[in-house]
Design a protein that fits this description.
The chain has 288 residues and is an alpha/beta fold. It has 11 helices and 12 strands. It has helices spanning 2-7, 50-56, 80-86, 104-110, 118-122, 131-140, 193-202, 223-228, 247-253, 261-265, 274-281, and strands at residues 13-18, 21-26, 40-47, 63-67, 91-94, 113-116, 155-159, 165-168, 184-190, 206-210, 233-237, 256-259. It has a 6-stranded mixed beta sheet with strand order 1-2-3-4-5-6, sandwiched between helices. Strands 7-8-9-10-11-12 form a 6-stranded mixed beta sheet. It is elongated and about 65 Å long. The N and C termini lie far apart (76 Å).
């Protein structure tokens, strides 16, 4: 069966061609082949889980757009985004309610982006964007410009009257010198012992991290007490409410699961949305 499929022409349709680069639609990730190398943005109407990603990755397409399969249990419908990210391939998932599975043309024409990996994000693709537009952006942006492993997410989401900022970035290790004693960092690493060492190194004005699912002996939040001894105000979001490793999820979806006393003095409470907690952490330290 495998030999038969390899010997037959794979049904593909070129919908855009510019300067030797193409957007190519197909009904299955199985149809990606050696003709779809770094000049092709592949729009394949399989779910974009690990198995379809494994089928496409050896051919090294320029970028991949798939179907999110309803995301599903353990986010299996989109796990291929991160498999491809590790291989340096921008990848995008379309909302399952907007595009048909097994219909590449419908995915291209009607699909709306639901999830992206960081490489696609750095190419200008974002959730809510039509798939056709996302494909053109991926076509126009050289993936080598994304500098895998060096560029990181960093977004200022709030600035206080005093000039302090809430900065969303995926890890405390991405803090900058200007964050020291000034900015609130919303990150997505755990708040364990090693996380505390980085927090003490960079010393932000405040921070929000993940609780890492709690872990044995509540080790996922052990860093809160460690940094409290040094006066740092911080909190942890529940990993059941926000995706660990994704600071945007921490900020938008996260619910505070734990906080230390300096954070409580600024008004942070367990059960509070992370976005509100980050705003409160901007406050000046109470004098009384």
């Amino acid at each position: 069966m495998g030999d038969l499929l390899e010997s037959e022409p794979h049904p593909q349709e070129v919908v855009v061609e510019e300067g030797g680069r193409r957007v190519v639609t197909m009904d299955s990730a199985r149809y990606v082949d050696a003709s779809n190398t770094d000049h092709d943005v592949v729009v394949a109407a399989s779910y974009i889980g690990v198995l379809p990603a494994r089928l496409m990755a050896p051919h090294r397409p320029r970028a991949v757009i798939g179907h999110d399969g309803g995301i599903g249990k353990d986010a299996a419908g989109i796990q291929g985004l991160y498999y491809l990210e590790a291989l340096g391939i921008p990848a995008v998932a379309a909302d399952g309610a907007t595009a048909e599975l097994g219909n590449g043309q419908d995915l291209h024409d009607e699909g709306v982006v639901s999830r992206v990996n960081i490489l696609a994000e750095q190419c200008g693709v974002s959730p809510g964007m039509p798939v056709a537009e996302a494909a053109r952006r991926l076509l126009a942006t050289d993936p080598s410009d994304t500098e895998v492993g060096t560029k990181v997410r960093r977004e200022v989401v709030e600035t206080s009257p005093t000039g302090r900022q809430v900065v969303v970035t995926d890890s405390i290790i991405f803090a900058r010198p200007e964050d020291r004693d000034r900015n609130v960092l919303v990150t997505a690493g755990h708040t364990g012992r090693s996380g505390a060492s980085f927090l003490l190194e960079f010393r932000p004005w405040g921070f929000i991290c993940s609780d890492g699912g709690g872990a044995k002996n509540d080790s996922g939040t052990a860093g809160l007490a460690i940094v409290e001894e040094h006066g740092l105000a911080g909190a942890s979001v529940s990993a059941m409410t926000a995706a660990i490793g994704d600071a945007q999820s921490s900020y938008v979806d996260g619910i505070i699961a734990a906080c230390n006393e300096p954070a409580r003095r600024r008004g942070v409470e367990v059960g509070m949305p992370a976005k509100h907690a980050a705003h409160l952490l901007l406050a000046e330290v109470p004098t009384s």
